[in-house]
């Protein structure tokens, strides 16, 4: 049961003092806070080059001419606005746990907070979710900026349904086809199809996108619910398995840790930012720590 | 093909096995079900499956139950009755040999040795022997059943009703005992017709041998009182004595029953005294067969009183009849009348297959079930090992508990 509001206003406003900055250069349509691969004339100095006829005399470094008797034009790194695409996993496994804050709720809350942050800083934010091969439904909001777009973005997040079994890999493939300009790609998923999904993530990263891996997990699936014999039913396949969690808890946690580390190490190998969010935790704290760390590493 | 169970109570063992399984499967409790993102890190535990009353490995369960069922079936001692086995059973004979009278060892041995199983019943009468034989036959393992009756087979010793107790499939065969003639050697006493009015006695020596029968007559050394006295009026007493001699000389021999005496009192013989019921069985039997006369016992002697005068034409036949009744035993002992071959043929019949098998014997068929149980046990071992290998290969998670 999805909540009507994916994130509270308090959560939305809590991070507005932070800027979501891309660690790599992004291409933007308008001047913004982010470095652009195109060198132009902006506030941030980049390099000198020999003066060529036609260069704007305002950018001639006269002090250097006085010292070296040669004309140099100053080049500045062009800053631009950023296009961020939030890819949210809407496979049914994200619906765990039921009755409490699910991974899906947490994923949408994170997408809402980060998207609001992106839009508030004047950048563009878009949303992409693919239901997978089962229904084939694609939920796509192109990255745009503006206040009005924020409302569209949040409404689209709130309307996202849980469907499909393919996880986020279908959405990643679609994103690779849709994104023509380099930008920020935030992938929010439980990555249970990590082999395929991480391959697609790697592909996006090598296309020049700044990919952030947000690994969403539920507390109960990290530690396994306690109790006697439980019949577990796979949310996606419907397969069942009867086991005694108390008896396999140790092995389960070890296997889960291997899985978590595998996803993180795969992100690290590609130089991607990795953020793990766990249901029941403080989303604001986790995001703040992540954003601060990301700015510090810039 | 049908199956008999010699120890059917062993099947209660299966029931005892089935009770906990049935309770386990039927008393299903609501299991706690949890929707979970993925099962990839989970491992099924058998104990958990048992707690949930879910059979995790049906083939293994079926094989194990089959092992137990085969073992219990073996303990129940099955007897598989096929057409071939039924035919084999009908080829053998369970024979009850009834020996009536004196033993006939050679005949009995011949009959018993040729039997699958046999028993010998010595009985004074055929009817008693048949009842004992029937009880014995009902307890015998499946086989053609036959009753063999050995004896002198005197006439009157067997009736249709005696044989009616036997089921139709039981064969009946008679072996008339050929009495050894050397056993028949006796001396009888006969009245000689001297023609002089006096009673003289002859000793008649009869000896039967395999070569023939020899009869020797010799004058008796003594002249005992005749065992039959005829009393009449004093006027007719001489006539009465002559009548007695005439009757005796017609061949009535007096032999073994020398202790029997009878007095026949015709009209005018005077009062014989108070008549009492004879104390001897033969005395009572004689009187029962003479309804038209009055009789009784007087001082240990049988007295028959008739109102006829001794001169009556019916007097001589009456004397002859009384003489035969009193001394008939001695005559039969000499030459008993035997049942005719026609009668024996009418009563004889071959054995027939029994319509049903009342009490099959252990044929050792349970060994096959033990073999089946052992083979299934081997299959169970193979299945169990393959499961263990699969479990080990599929997941390193240690089993929670091994439940056999």
Which keywords apply here?
heterodimer; A: 298 residues; alpha/beta; six-stranded mixed beta sheet; three-stranded antiparallel beta sheet; 9 helices; 37% helix; B: 404 residues; four-stranded mixed beta sheet; disordered C terminus
Which blocks of ≥5 consecutive residues of chain A have pLDDT under 50? none
Number of helices of chain A: 9
* Overall spatial form of chain B: rod-shaped
Rg of chain A: 22 Å
Give start-end ranges of low-pLDDT stretches of chain B: 392-404
Rounded mean pLDDT of chain A is: 82
Most extensive interface, residues per chain? A-B, 34 and 26 residues
Order of helices and strands of chain A: HEEHEEHEEHHEHEHEEHEH
Q: Report the portion of residues of chain A in β strands.
A: 15-25%
Report the sheet-strand fraction of chain B.
15-25%
Major β-sheet strand ordering of chain B: 5-4-6-7
Radius of gyration of chain B: 42 Å
Q: What does this molecule look like?
A:
The complex is a heterodimer of chains A (298) and B (404). Chain A is α/β, with parallel strands linked by helices. Chain A is 37% helix and 24% strand. In chain A, a hairpin with a 5-residue loop joins strand 9 and strand 10. The two termini of chain A are 39 Å apart. Chain B is an alpha/beta fold and 404 residues long. Chain B has twelve helices and 14 strands. In chain B, strand 13 and strand 14 form a beta hairpin. At the A-B interface, strand 9, strand 10 and helix 8 of A face strand 2 and helix 2 of B.
């Amino acid at each position: 049961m999805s909540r009507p509001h994916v994130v509270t206003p308090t959560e939305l406003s809590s991070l507005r003092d932070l800027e979501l900055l891309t660690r790599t250069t992004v291409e933007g349509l308008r001047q913004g806070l982010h470095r652009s691969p195109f060198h132009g004339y902006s506030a941030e100095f980049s390099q000198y080059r020999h003066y060529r006829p036609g260069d704007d005399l305002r950018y001639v470094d006269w002090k250097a001419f006085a010292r070296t008797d040669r004309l140099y034009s100053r080049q500045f790194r062009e800053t631009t606005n950023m296009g961020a695409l939030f890819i949210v996993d809407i496979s049914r496994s994200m619906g765990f746990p039921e009755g409490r804050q699910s991974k899906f709720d947490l994923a949408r809350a994170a997408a809402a907070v980060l998207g609001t942050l992106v839009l508030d800083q004047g950048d563009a934010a878009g949303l992409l979710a693919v239901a997978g091969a089962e229904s084939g439904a694609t939920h796509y909001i192109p990255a745009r900026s503006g206040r009005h777009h924020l409302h569209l973005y949040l409404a689209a997040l709130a309307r996202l349904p849980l469907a499909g079994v393919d996880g986020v890999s279908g959405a990643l493939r679609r994103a690779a086809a849709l994104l023509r300009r380099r930008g920020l790609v935030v992938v929010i998923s439980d990555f249970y199809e990590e082999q395929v999904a991480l391959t697609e993530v790697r592909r996006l990263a090598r296309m020049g996108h700044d990919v952030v891996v947000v690994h969403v997990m539920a507390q109960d699936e990290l530690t396994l619910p306690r109790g006697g014999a439980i019949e577990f039913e796979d949310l996606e396949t419907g397969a069942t398995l009867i086991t005694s969690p108390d008896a396999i808890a140790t092995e389960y946690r070890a296997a889960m840790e291997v899985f978590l580390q595998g996803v993180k190490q795969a992100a690290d190998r590609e130089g991607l930012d990795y953020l793990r969010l766990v249901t029941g935790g403080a989303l604001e704290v986790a995001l703040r720590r992540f954003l601060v760390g990301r700015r510090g590493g810039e | 093909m049908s199956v008999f169970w010699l120890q059917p109570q062993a099947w209660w063992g299966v029931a005892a096995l089935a009770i906990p399984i049935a309770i386990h499967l039927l008393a299903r409790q609501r299991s706690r079900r949890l929707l979970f993102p993925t099962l990839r890190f989970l491992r099924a535990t058998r104990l958990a499956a048992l707690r949930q009353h879910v059979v995790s490995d049906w083939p293994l369960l079926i094989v194990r139950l089959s092992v137990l069922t085969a073992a219990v079936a073996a303990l129940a001692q099955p007897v598989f009755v096929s057409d071939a086995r039924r035919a084999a059973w009908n080829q053998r004979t369970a024979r009850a040999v009834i020996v009536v009278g004196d033993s006939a060892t050679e005949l009995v041995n011949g009959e018993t040795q040729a039997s699958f199983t046999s028993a010998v019943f010595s009985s004074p009468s055929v009817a008693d022997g048949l009842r004992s034989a029937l009880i014995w036959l009902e307890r015998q393992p499946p086989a053609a059943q036959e009753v063999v009756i050995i004896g002198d087979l005197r006439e009157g010793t067997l009736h249709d009703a005696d044989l009616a107790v036997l089921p139709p499939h039981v064969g009946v065969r008679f072996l008339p005992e050929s009495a050894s003639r050397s056993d028949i050697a006796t001396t009888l006493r006969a009245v000689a017709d001297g023609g002089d009015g006096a009673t003289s006695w002859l000793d008649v020596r009869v000896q039967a041998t395999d070569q023939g029968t020899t009869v020797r007559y010799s004058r008796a050394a003594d002249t005992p009182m005749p065992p039959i006295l005829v009393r009449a009026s004093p006027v007719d007493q001489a006539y009465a004595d002559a009548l007695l001699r005439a009757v005796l000389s017609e061949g009535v021999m007096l032999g073994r029953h020398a202790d029997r005496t009878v007095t026949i009192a015709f009209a005018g013989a005077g009062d014989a005294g108070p008549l009492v019921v004879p104390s001897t069985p033969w005395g009572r039997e004689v009187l029962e067969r003479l309804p038209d006369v009055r009789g009784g016992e007087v001082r240990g002697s049988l007295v028959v009183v008739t109102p006829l005068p001794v001169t009556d034409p019916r007097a001589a036949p009456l004397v002859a009849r009384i003489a035969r009744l009193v001394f008939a035993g001695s005559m039969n002992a000499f030459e008993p009348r035997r049942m005719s071959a026609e009668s024996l043929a009418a009563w004889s019949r071959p054995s027939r297959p029994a319509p049903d098998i009342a009490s099959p014997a252990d044929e050792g068929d349970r060994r096959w079930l033990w073999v089946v149980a052992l083979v299934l046990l081997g299959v169970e071992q193979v299945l169990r090992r393959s499961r263990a290998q699969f479990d080990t290969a599929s997941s390193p998670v240690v089993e929670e508990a091994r439940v056999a």
